[in-house]
Amino acid sequence: MSEFLDMGGYGAYVWPSYLVTLIILGGLCVASWSGMRRQEAELKSLQDDSPRRRRNRGGA
Amino acid sequence: MHRFANPARFLRIANALLPWCVLSTGLLIATGLYFALFVSPADYQQGETVRIMFVHVPSAWMGLGVYTGMAIASAVALIWKHPLADIAARASAPIGAAFTLICLLTGSLWGKPMWGTWWVWDARLTSMLLLLFLFLGHIALSNAFDDMERGAKSAAVLALVGLVNVPVIKFSVDWWNTLHQPASVVRLDGPAIHPSMLTPLLLMAAGFLALYLTILILRMRGEIAERKIRVMRMNRAAEGEPGIVAAEQGG
């Protein structure tokens, strides 16, 4: 196990590479997901408190 | 193509694709990592540092690919005023920037043990840094104007002008003397890389592509909702609802 983590003496370069990739891509996933949820929730609340619009929809 | 122009139809297709994108991202990256870290051998010259390649090279490909896609979407948006093309370009820029940043950082972590330096101002590295600035410039420009359409137009022009950088990056290792090694996968005489290393490389690249599509769908959904919100607010403001007008001005 420690031999695997050591990466032939290059562990200090190999693991940070994978870690940096994980942090950046993971962070982007979380930010994109929560941003989308926020916008869609706001859109829904706008649509819900627009009674005239709802009436129009019901009639259509 | 115009069949996909309708945001409602796009959302239906995108939502049907999303679970498959998530699933293939997980599977491809998991198997890719297994091959990259456990199965593939150390390089005879570079030792274990060669494992950095399995995140470095796919993110470089993604940086170039996403930029090219963004430029194509920008051209479509400029020529045919296709609203989804504009949304796709805007949603792509942060993803391309992330992949390019990963490429630069992991390249630095690979350069230190192999070249003895974190950074050199040579053609490949400098043109890749320029790619990052083009992505960041696109993000900044598309948010720089109160009028969304003007911002989108300027950003689209930047994306098209910056496209000249893509072949420069690709051929920089052939045109100039550089510390960076030449291409070993995408070359005319076929890949000069052993299957034991090519397998994890292609798996990771496919996984990154699936991840790009996943994040693209999420960001485009957010963008479409944001535009609908803006239209609703503007309509209400036009109808003279004072609360909404104040909120618009405040925001």
Would you kindly provide a written description of the structure presented here, covering whatever features stand out?
The complex is a heterodimer of chains A (60) and B (251). Chain A has helices at residues 2-6, 11-48, 51-59. Chain A is rod-shaped, with a radius of gyration of 24 Å. With 60 residues, chain A is mainly α. In chain A, 87% of the residues lie in helices and 0% in strands. Chain A has three helices and no strands. The model of chain A has no long low-confidence stretch (mean pLDDT 84). Chain B has 251 residues and is mainly alpha-helical. Chain B is 77% helix and 0% strand. Chain B contains eight helices and no strands. Chain B has helices spanning 7-39, 53-80, 83-115, 123-142, 148-162, 165-175, 195-238, 242-250. In chain B, helix 1 packs antiparallel against helix 7 and helix 4 (123-142) runs antiparallel to helix 5. The interface between A and B is medium-sized, with 28 and 35 residues.
Write the layout of secondary structure elements.
The complex is a heterodimer of chains A (60) and B (251).
Chain A: H1 2-6, H2 11-48, H3 51-59
Chain B: H1 7-39, H2 53-80, H3 83-115, H4 123-142, H5 148-162, H6 165-175, H7 195-238, H8 242-250
Helix pairs in contact in B: 1-7, 2-3, 2-4, 2-5, 2-7, 3-4, 3-7, 4-5, 4-6, 7-8
> What's the helical proportion of residues of chain A?
over 70%
Number of strands of chain A: 0
Order of SSEs of chain B, N→C?
Answer: HHHHHHHH
The shape of chain A, in one word, is rod-shaped
Overall structural class of chain B, as computed from helix and strand content, comes to mainly alpha
Mean pLDDT of chain B: 89
Question: Major sheet of chain A, described briefly?
Answer: none
Mind summarizing the main beta sheet of chain B? none
- Largest contact between protein chains? A-B, 28 and 35 residues
**Share in β-strands of chain B:** under 5%
